[in-house]
Request: fold
Amino acid sequence: MSDTVTTPPRRKHYLNVDYGIKSWLLTQDHKRIAILYLISITFFFIIGGVMAALIRVELATPLGDLVEADTYNRLFTAHGVLMVFLFLIPSIPAVLGNFLIPLMIGAKDLAFPKLNLGSWYVYNLGALLMVAALLRGGTDTGWTFYTPYSSTFADSEVILTALGAFVVGFSSIMTGLNFIVTIHRMRAPGLTWFRLPLFVWAHYGTSLIQVLGTPVVAIAILLVAAERLLHIGIFDPALGGDPVLFQHLFWFYSHPAVYIMILPSMGVISELIAAFSRKRIFGYKFVAFSSLAIAVLGFLVWGHHLFVSSQSIYAGLIFSVLSMLVAVPSAVKVFNWTATLYQGSISWQTPMIYALGFIGLFVIGGLTGTMLATLGIDMHVHDTYFVVAHFHYIMVGGAIMGYLGGLHFWWPKITGRMYSVFWSKIAAGLIFVGFNLTFFPQFLLGYMGMPRRYHAYPEEFQILNVLSSAGATILGLGYLLPLIYLFWSMRYGERAGDNPWGAYGLEWETSSPPPTLNFDEPPVVTTEAYDYLSLREKKLA
Amino acid sequence: MQGESSHAFGLAHHFDSFDQQREASYLGMWVFLVTEIMFFGGLFTAYVVYRSGQGAAFAIGSHELDIVLGSINTAVLIGSSLTMALAVWAAQTGRRKAIVAFILATILLGGLFLGIKVVEYSAKFEHHLVPGPNFHWQGPEAPGVEMFFNLYFLMTGLHAAHMVIGIGILLVVAILAWRGSFSPENHNLVEGIGLYWHFVDIVWIFLFPLLYLLGRNIQV
Reply:
């Protein structure tokens, strides 16, 4: 589009309203803070990805020939800690949620802009602690910090890494608190709860988990640090403590944390499916409440991580049944998305490829999750690559596909520019193929009995491991491409226009990139979400 | 378009009205207190787990605590909640000097609480009841008694840390109040710190019976 040449006074928007490093580091604009988060989490995604690459190179051969066993332990710990705490948990909420929630509900900003900026600094402070731990040699406990190994025996930087997780947790709480208050109190006139986009509903559920769960892992981490520093025995059986108590406290947060990663992604998928099927989401209320159901049920299932940790068999049975219940709201979402596609006017844009990829991968991840929730099967595959494959299908196949799909969908809104359609479709294809090649063989390996967290393995596992490592290479290439063409598009991309997808929603009614206060006229909402029918009628008339 | 110039003094740019700003501020504080409940909840869970297994040792431990000082501190803290509530009332009714006076009274009572806590802690230190390498317990159930004191110090210590933070914020609020930053329409900070102070008070209301009273009737 060439209209840029004909409009001499440049329109002020949030990106060009002010220049200079200070205008970014002291900004209280949710959109700029989202960009700050985007930079931070991309940085740590790359570092965590390099760790994963080293792991896959080591596992290409049965012998431990690249790194020592101890170094390997530190590698997979760093990979897990960075990816979970510094990438996956903040990814969609702190970047896309931060940017979009005020736009989607017609507000000028989040309820607490200073708290929002503060959360980014707290995040970086925690990240700094983790990086310091890495530079001092890393941690070898696994991202789960299980006691009494972490509290008594481990001879690595447990305290620094754990305190990093503790501090980052507060940034997560700040974001969640901000979203809850914003969604309750800042909605535009006429925007009732059941007119909210499902993205907002999903973030509401996510925020509940962040607010209720994170403090519990914070106290668990504090207790481990106290035990190490003061030589007291909270979790040390030799001093009358109970190591399993740590597992309870840890998983009370860390299982719901999985839903912190996947729920926002599901919110993104609902937006994408509706936009590229040109239809209102089938069963809107069911999808909205399924987000809350996942958030609530998520707090009742942590015991399925303790099936082999001396938990009573009755507790195991109950946790097993409760864990399977999570499949119900998850299936509600998948069926409703599928029903939305039915007779929809489907267009194969890049974000839609990610959305359809998400559905396929999430179904596999979810079904294997139900298998793992079954007591008998879990005894067999506990701590094997089956578990590793399962949670990567949810976190990488689910959460990251949603994140990338969302990033591609709202990129024109965020930057005002369009990226290369061709390369973005290539990347989406590479990621889908590379991901499956990386992680599907791990299901087989795990079922055959290959345990996780070892740097060497028997020779008969090599073929599948080589396949997995080859897949990781493709996956890495797929992740590299968006980094290049998205960056490129910021300068050379075509001007996108306010609503390049013809999508429905308040965020598409303001200009791209939006002005600092989001809307020139305070919006008033008179219609349901995803009212594509009336949009079409308006066009025809 | 609503420019910032049309905004009333004290109303942040992204809110439409004082009502909206106040409701957001209160809800935010309540959500924060929920996170605090979960934070302390982890410790209370640990307490329940260990007490259910080592009830006798916990009874022995509670006999070692100074019930007189504990009771005085409970009264002091409830008194501080009263002065805090009065400070909020003063803010609602626009009494500038009364806000400052009641907040200073709250700070004073909070300081008194912490002072008494220091006396209690130092007595435990002298009797080698502080957990760790220097812990010595001659009587029965030594590991259980040490666990009791682990939890005693962690729970009361975390509570005291919240008091210290609260006093720090109260000092700032007192200065702001003295400068006349609050009005009956806009005194969210006073309400917020008030809620926080009452919460910290309530945590103590649970800590006191759990640590000082339970098991005291059992002869050891």
